[in-house]
Amino acid sequence: MNKLIVLAMLVLGTIGLQAQDDTRAMGADSVTVHGSNAETASSDKYNLGVGVSIGGFGGGISIENAEGRKVNPAFWALPSYGAVIYAPFGKGSEMGGRLDIGVSSTGTKTRPYENYDGKGNWQGFFNEKYTYFTIAPQVSLMGVILGVGINFPMSGERWNPNSSAARYYVDKEILTSPKLDVRLGGMITVWKTTHGRLFVDLQAKYDLGGGFKDDMYLYGTPVTSLGNPVPAQQADPTINLTTASCSIGIGYIFNVGF
User: Fold this and answer.
1) What was the pLDDT predicted at 235?
2) CA geometry: angle at 167 spanning 163 and 173, to 5°?
3) How many independent structural domains does the chain possess?
4) Other CB atoms closer than 10 Å to residue 197's CB: what's the count?
5) Domain that holds residue 30
6) What is the band of 148 on the pLDDT scale with cuts at 50, 70, 90?
7) What CATH number corresponds to the domain at position 179?
């Protein structure tokens, strides 16, 4: 009889332990289900990206120059900065629309004529830089950016980085407004969390028209090696300043879920 009682107690104890294990398992399954639901709920959100982008380094070059003049690329820091809005085409989509609103710049290094600034063999030069308030609607296709820029002139300047001479400021009234460009770039994510993402911003732009109003670009006319104008009957039409430019920078956008 005692053996039966002991055996019964062992069986009941085993059943009790099994019941506790089953309860714990059910609890764990419940937690897993709830966690899965939370993750699903998070992934089901439509995330609008809102943030900033800063161009760290960039430059530009004129794509055409008048007879007797030469150009080279010019480079400078902080070529662009502003706000970024990124709207995916759907929940979790790798494609979307991007809108940049901010400040951007382009320019070139100009060698006005062979003996400019008392130097021979094209050694004399100055940089030209033009700054714009820019609105740029674009499309992102798996991180490849394609779009247009609508640029309103803010300022223009010319200077020689090797000289102590004062900068010359261009009257923005003679600049084209608005000036359009077509742009191609990359939005490369390097760090991503549930709150947003950090990305490298690459951009190349090509002007769709000249930066100056008709016949207003001072260095668009043909000249001799001494900077003298070519006789009118031999001169080509005034060439406008049309540039191509590029930049590299970083940006961060916060996720705004709906």
Assistant:
1) 60
2) 155
3) 2
4) 20
5) 1-44
6) very high
7) 2.40.160
